[in-house]
Structures are given as structure tokens and as C-alpha cells.
Write a structure and sequence with these properties.
single chain, alpha/beta, 5-stranded parallel sheet, 3-stranded parallel sheet, 10 strands
Length: 331
């Protein structure tokens, strides 16, 4: 019998090898599930359920790709990979007076349990923003408060305690530029010289702390620590942008998308995770088409290398920094 401070949850990962799918299609539904049944104060005991007919993108068929991503991101749930199992290798180890007994059982009883994700996922039957029909129905309208609670819960789990967040209205203003956030060629973007252009055009007006990062090289705790106090986050959309969810309330997110689409839908814009991010509530989200020509390095005393895309994003950053720097004026 599991302890009363635990909750047993069978679950199936749709595509746990992708951080965006893992957090928004698996972790978010799990959070909704345990809050719906008032089990948020219990430690989760996760049993990954392998289906008779394996899903094409599921971890059951792609475990070697899923394993490192699960190991990296499970601390967001307050657990670790070696503390989870599947229904094929689950066993209850009996401990009496601190001593582990040799007897084991493949049957696990629990006073608390919860199951069923389905409609609790971030997009239900839509396709994340690949198809024009994905924009006809919004599943996440009115869920901004729940998204913010989910964000805070994950941050607390990583820190293993509640923390006081730094006021983003105080300088220096951290801007995160996330490069190479996707392994898909159309979204595998390096924001060449963007940081240099930001410093050149806005550095005299604001005290800036610009971080150019490749997030997949960082641990999840390092990603949370970097993002939780940031003012602005810049990235291509897609699963690699999931770290932006750790931005504090009032921050800004600039997401680039492929205007011409790619892959299965080559003729429509791919504003991936549109529904969730447009309704996330606690941050301001801006969608920008990926420039055909990446940003050029500025030349001191010359403006010839400016282009419309660069001017637009720098003016938008100026606008967002102006809002953020005046937060305390309205209290």
C-alpha cells in the first residue's frame, strides 16, 4: 500500500521526446488532473502506460529518444526518471522499520489515484497551429490563471522551495535570445547579430542584460533560473520555446514563425502552439514572421544596413521595455 501522501497516476506520453509536447501535452494535463481532484499536495507516483497498439510518436516506440528528455524535465513535476516506471516493470517494495524486505508485489494499491488526460491537453483535437482549422477554436480561453499557477508550481518543484522573484521593472533588464531551438531546418535559427543590434540601438536608453543561449545545452534548473527573472524572451516558435513559460508575470515573449509553413502544411503560416500561448495571460506574446534575411551587424555611424524586419523588432523591444520599466508607476 502506498503512503497517504502519494498519488498513483497511470499516464501515457504522447511525444515525450519533444520538450513542448512533454510539458504541454503531458505535464500540463497531469497538473490539471491532480488539481481537479485536490491532490496537488501529494507526491506523484507515475506509471507510464504502454499501449497494446503503440502511438506513432509515443515514448513506447521511441524510448531511447524520450529517456534523456524525460530525465531532464521530470524535476518540473517534483520527481525523477528513476522514480517512475511502466506497467511492465512496476513492483511494490516492502519496507519495514527502515529495512527493505525481499518480498515484492507487481500489484500496487494506493489510497489516492487519478487517471485520464484526454481533453486536458493543451490543444485537444487541434494540431498546434499547423492547419488553418487550428485557429477556429480556442481551447485555452480563460485559463491564464491556471497557466500561471502551473508555471509557479513547476518553478517551485525545481527549486524545491518557494522563492521570491526579482522585480523585472528594475534594471538591468534581462533579454534572452534563444538560438537553435529546433532541429527542424526551417526553424533552426541563429539570431545572428540581434544582440549587437539591440545594444547598438537601445543600450543608451536601458541598462540591458542580454543572454544569447542554446537552451538544449542547459539543465532544466539552469533554464528556469535564467528565465524566471527575465523581462523579454526571443525565440522561434515550437517545442523549443517551452522554456518561455517560466517567464515572470508581466514579461514579453517574441516568437518568430515560418510564414510559408513547412513539412505537412507548406503553404500556411506555422504559428505553433498559438492557442496556448495567446491565452497564457501572464505574459504578452507577439508573433513575428521569420525574416528571409537574418539581421546584419550594425556599422557605427551608418544606418544603411537597417531593414524593415530589424527596425520593427527593435521598435517593438523599445515599446516592451518602456512598459516593463514603468510597472511601478501604476501602483
Amino acid at each position: 500500500m502506498l503512503q497517504t501522501d502519494k498519488v498513483l497516476i497511470p499516464w501515457h506520453s504522447m511525444a515525450g521526446h519533444n520538450p513542448g509536447h512533454l510539458v504541454w501535452d503531458d505535464f500540463l494535463p497531469l497538473y490539471k488532473l491532480i488539481t481537479a481532484f485536490d491532490l496537488i499536495d501529494k507526491d506523484m507516483v507515475l506509471i507510464r502506460y504502454d499501449l497494446t497498439l503503440a502511438m506513432w510518436a509515443g515514448c513506447q516506440r521511441q524510448w531511447e529518444k524520450c529517456r534523456p528528455i524525460l530525465k531532464k524535465f521530470l524535476p518540473l513535476l517534483g520527481t525523477h526518471l528513476n522514480m517512475t516506471s511502466s506497467q511492465n516493470d512496476t513492483s511494490l517494495e516492502l519496507v519495514v522499520d527502515g529495512e527493505q524486505l525481499s518480498r515484492k508485489s507487481k500489484y500496487v494499491c494506493a489510497p489516492n489515484g487519478a487517471a485520464g488526460l484526454g481533453y486536458l491537453t493543451d490543444h485537444f483535437k487541434s494540431y498546434h497551429g499547423w492547419h488553418p482549422d487550428d485557429y477556429k477554436m480556442a481551447l485555452n480561453t480563460g485559463r491564464g490563471g491556471q497557466m500561471y499557477q502551473f508555471r509557479n508550481w513547476m518553478v517551485d518543484n525545481v527549486y524545491e522551495e518557494k522563492r521570491d522573484e526579482r522585480k523585472i521593472s528594475k534594471a538591468p533588464y534581462r533579454i534572452i535570445i534563444s538560438s537553435s531551438s529546433s532541429d527542424k531546418a526551417p526553424r533552426r535559427v541563429s539570431f545572428n547579430h540581434l544582440a549587437t543590434n539591440i545594444r547598438y540601438r537601445l543600450g543608451h536608453k536601458y541598462e540591458l542584460d542580454i543572454k544569447e543561449v542554446v537552451l538544449h545545452t542547459m539543465s532544466i534548473k539552469e533554464q528556469v533560473q535564467l528565465t524566471a527573472d527575465a523581462a523579454i524572451f526571443i525565440s522561434m516558435c515550437g517545442g523549443g520555446a517551452v522554456t518561455s513559460m517560466f517567464l515572470p508575470k508581466g514579461a514579453s515573449l517574441l516568437l518568430y514563425y515560418t510564414a510559408a509553413g513547412h513539412g505537412r502544411h507548406p503553404n500556411t503560416p506555422a504559428r505553433l502552439d498559438w492557442d496556448l500561448l495567446n491565452n497564457i495571460g501572464y505574459i504578452r506574446v507577439h508573433w513575428l514572421p521569420k525574416p528571409r534575411q537574418m539581421f546584419l551587424k550594425p556599422t557605427v555611424g551608418q544606418n544603411e544596413n537597417r531593414n524593415d524586419d530589424l527596425d520593427f523588432v527593435l521598435n517593438l523591444l523599445d515599446h516592451e521595455l518602456d512598459i516593463i520599466s514603468h510597472f511601478d508607476d501604476y501602483k
